[in-house]
Specification:
The chain is an alpha+beta fold and 162 residues long. The chain is built from 5 helices and 13 strands.
Length: 162
């Protein structure tokens, strides 16, 4: 049914005939535009029934929190389209814990880690979205200080080696 609306606890994105990527993080929601435009409102704006939505165009991205919508660095729309089509995730300077949270959502079992132990480790990588085990192997190869322990196929632990 029209209009197509994506809602998170941080706010909502209303499609205006478009392609976009929505990524829910621990602290906020990120919207990156591939094509056309969206109208974005924070949870506060939604609660107030405010009509002052932020229009986000192709090549732009924003962070949505319950309090507001803030612009982020521009994105390459064609690159985003290719990543989506090839099921790849381009991670740029993100905390390892956030990356592991996303991989855990796609892992068929339990993927655990101690956030305090891996604090300070940041990731920039291209990871396969449809193969969390391969993504973990790539991370381990990039971070020699990481140890990935597989107790079973479904129970995986990531920790700092040493």
């Amino acid at each position: 049914a029209r209009p197509f609306v994506v809602r998170t606890r941080d706010g909502e994105v209303r499609a205006l005939g478009t392609q976009f990527v929505v990524e829910r993080g621990a602290e906020s929601t990120r919207l990156a535009m591939i094509e056309s435009a969206t109208a974005v409102r924070s949870a506060r704006q939604v609660a107030r029934h405010a009509d002052d939505a932020v229009r986000v165009q192709a090549g732009e991205q924003v962070r949505i929190t319950p309090e507001g919508v803030t612009p982020l660095a521009p994105v390459d729309p064609q690159g985003l389209r290719t990543q989506w089509q090839q099921r790849q995730w381009v991670v740029l300077d993100r905390p390892l814990a956030e990356v592991l949270d996303e991989l855990a959502r796609r892992h068929p079992g339990h993927l655990g880690y101690d956030a305090a132990q891996i604090a300070g480790l940041r990731v920039s990588a291209v990871l396969p979205l449809d193969d969390p085990d391969r993504a973990l192997a790539l991370l381990q190869g990039s971070f020699p200080q990481l140890r990935v322990t597989r107790l079973t196929r479904f129970w995986v632990r990531v920790e700092r080696a040493g």
